[in-house]
Amino acid sequence: MQRLFFLCAFLYCISTNTTAQDCNITFKGRIIDFHDKTPIYGASIFVLNLNRYTTSDIDGVFEINNLCKGRIIIEIKHLSCDTKQITIDINKNISEDIFLEHHLEELNEVILKASTKTEQSSVEQSIKKAVIEQFTDKSLGDALKTISGVSALSTGNSIVKPMIHGLHSSRLLIINNNVRMYDQEWGDEHAPNIDINASDRIDVIKGANTLKYGSDAIGGLILLRPKKYAIKDSLFGSTLTSFNSNGLGGNLNSEIIKTYKSGYYTKIQMNYKQFGDFEAPNYNLTNSGIKSLNGSVQFGYNSFEKGFDAYYSYVNNEFGILQSSHIGNVNDLVNAINSEQPRIIEDFSYTINAPKQSIVHHLAKIEAYKRYKGFGKLTVQYDFQINRRKEFDLRRGGLKNTPVIDLRLFTTSIQPNLQIDYFDDLKINTGLLFRYQQNDAISGTGTSPLIPDFDKFDAGIYAIGNYNLSETTEISAGFRYDFSDINARKEYNVTDWQETYNYDELFPEFENGDISGTDIPTNPRFTYHNISASLGLSKKFDNNMQLLANYGLASRVPNPSELFSDGLHHSAARIETGLLTIGKEIANKFVLSLEKNNNDFGFIISPYYKHINGFTQLIPIGITTTIRGAFPVWEYNQVAAQIFGIDIDVNKKISTNFSYSGSLSLLQGDNLTDDIPLIHMPAANFSNRVSYINANLNQLTIRLSQKTILQQNSYPDYNFFTYNATLQENVFVDISSTPPSYSLFGLHTSAVFKLFNKGSLKLEFNIENMFNVSYREHLNRLRYFTDDLGRNYNLKLKINY
Amino acid sequence: MKITNAIKTTRLLALLFISVLTFTACSDDDDDHGYDSEEELITTVRYTLTNGNNIVTLTFSDPDGEGGNDGTYTVSGNLTTNLTYTGVIELLNETESPAEDITEEVKAEADEHEFFYNSNVSGLAITKTDTDGNGNPLGIETSLTTGSAGSGTLTVILKHEPKKPNNDTSADAGGSTDVEVVFNITVQ
Predict the structure, then answer these.
(1) Which of A627, A728, A730 is the best residue to mutate to test the B interface, defined by the most B CB atoms within 10 Å of its own CB?
(2) Rounded to whole angstroms, how far apart are CA atoms A611 and A218?
(3) Going along B62-130, which residue ranges are E strands?
(4) For the domain that residue B73 is a member of, what is the CATH number?
(5) Taking CB atoms and an 8 Å limit, are B70 and A326 in contact across chains?
(6) Which residues of A touch B6 (CB under 8 A)?
(7) pTM of whole model > 0.90?
(8) How many domains does chain B fold into?
């Protein structure tokens, strides 16, 4: 058909030269910018089948005369615009408006420069695909620790919770493929359920510009983003496999992507990971294995004017928790602290017994967008998540295989968003959010639930503007309002309700029925109004220098564990109690960043200060005696707090092949109410890396790295004495003192080989903890029981096809 | 042709997507939104010492479990000097009616449990008279011998997953503590 047409056109062209009849038609056009409807000057217009050129004038207007009846194909080109082809049948004089799009990156594969940012005026750092692949068999928290100012609160080595500037859990927003993750990561031992292999890039936003996603990014924001694919017919994929000597395990990750010229694309990714017991330098960490099965499917349609994206991901994690960390009472904890090694050390095994966590997370979203001429882009996203968390403890008899915690959290939201790019210098991003969340404490656990049944409703509205003051200066400002309503159902112990916490006088309206036995049914209900705001400034100087200044006002409503949690934590030998009196947390954050982006010599110097009113923390307040003996009671309380520090990153090219990079993070957290340090603040740390890269020799890379974590000397002293029934004397319980400084060295080598026409093979060999150092990290909750991981040899193989 | 393919693939994926959602939305649990009773709870530890008609019971009772009111200790009387008592321990969950006998559960998993007894009253000795399936001491049944007059404490500890055999101290046995109660007693 097409061929026939060209033939016809060709013959027609020949004939037009000889006969000039009916060839006096004029096609008049105007080239207009899609966004702001301004005329585009100097666009080239090429009539393909007639081999004729013209250009648009200052008003965007062009004219092609002496056209014959028939079909013409026109190609319109303009610098920094997407080339457009249109086909028109002409039989009389016509005039037409043609819209051109100058935002190439929206359409095509995103070509990332080293300094590309999500938001120009925001203090942020990114992890690229290459680094994500280094952590293919580890967790999100491990990968993020490569960024200065990011640390992790962990339970063993598999449950790793990222921390930005010492803040974690509900103070960090984790946005997975534009969906805010809700996976019950309230407690210290709840890590985000994310398969990092599903993302192409991870951004950590320390400063402003988080308002689109929520009001409560007191710590910051973690954005996991999938890749955008080019619009062309293509089929490609990769398979990555890794093996580790420590834990005798690894993972297998495969992805395959099909894209069509029509704009459709689809991607399927699968990941399986398994490890047995890990080992510290001197002993096995019995029951520390992992089993994890993850997958994601994505498909969509991408064109300039409209498109959609559907995404579903499944994460199934089973984490063994060090068997020795299951203890009965505070005397068991004292024994663990005083003993050099874990009380249970068995031979290596892949078996995962109790205590363990088993978590399944489903996430699905569908997003559709449409652009309007001379206005902007409207996006609507619907998403939902189901998180099912089961925690198993050592139990007696028939309850052995019954979880002690069994919670199901369902979250669904709808978010319309409007990006207005009509104005040259001003971009506006505004939107709404409606979210419903339901927690279901599944019955049959034989325990009273840690978190009760609740329904939560959120609604939010935000607007963010980015304004270019000049070529080099940009400012941004944002505002957000949120409404939250939480409605829970929980049975309280009558004595606790009436006497211990005085709730019968504070919240008589919550009482919801008659006392039965020792319990009283209640229906706690809270509503909150939240205001948050942000201000950002970025100024570019010569020599690739840039200065960023961010201010943020963030407010966070108490999470369900802070309000309702009530129960015994075996791995910590403590009773944790939430309080209905906990209120909002309001933070003022200031972040500065002076950056020089250059391959030869670059740096980022970023000081920050946060003041938090009503900072909610979990601290020990006393001892209670139960039938199991004594337990410290940890209660949530609120204080005024400040956190300040500085993150420094440096990179320097030494020679053609050698380069150096290093980073340093200093942080101090103060409890201003009690004039003592804050609990669980990351210690000062620094790292150095020297790399040799030879692009001509199979991209051979050899990197030597070192990371030192200094002892945290600034910690609150919550030590206490307890009566030891066996020794029949009071013993000292040192839960606060921190372990000494440690340094870890690592080696990374990799090379890429061409396999066949389009395929390549990447081989990687790494050594972690090269000198097999025994160490304990004070942000690892199992530090009372065991040393951290010993040396690991790691081999990775990646095939691109 | 390609577009038809794309549409087909799209339909297929849409079907997959919807079926996955339907599958996950259907819950596999019958949740009655009720409140679970504490099934593992031990509210009462009773140590009964018998010599003929001379019966002394040491009871620790915490009927509302962890939290709420603290538990209470009751000792029915004083022990007599230079006498041997037969001791039996009883663990109950009295939030259920009739009270659940947890001792039976411990007995059923005798190889994973062991009781330990300590006292700082001079001359007072307690020996375990029963064993688990492997011939190691269990401690539900004991023999208590008093010496001269005195007063002090008697501690009862139940360990879950202790090292067995051990040197008869709870410290050596390790494991996790399920019960630890301390009675004040007098021998006269």
Answers:
(1) A627
(2) 10
(3) 72-75, 84-93, 100-101, 113-119, 125-128
(4) 2.60.40.1080
(5) no
(6) 260, 262, 264
(7) no
(8) 1
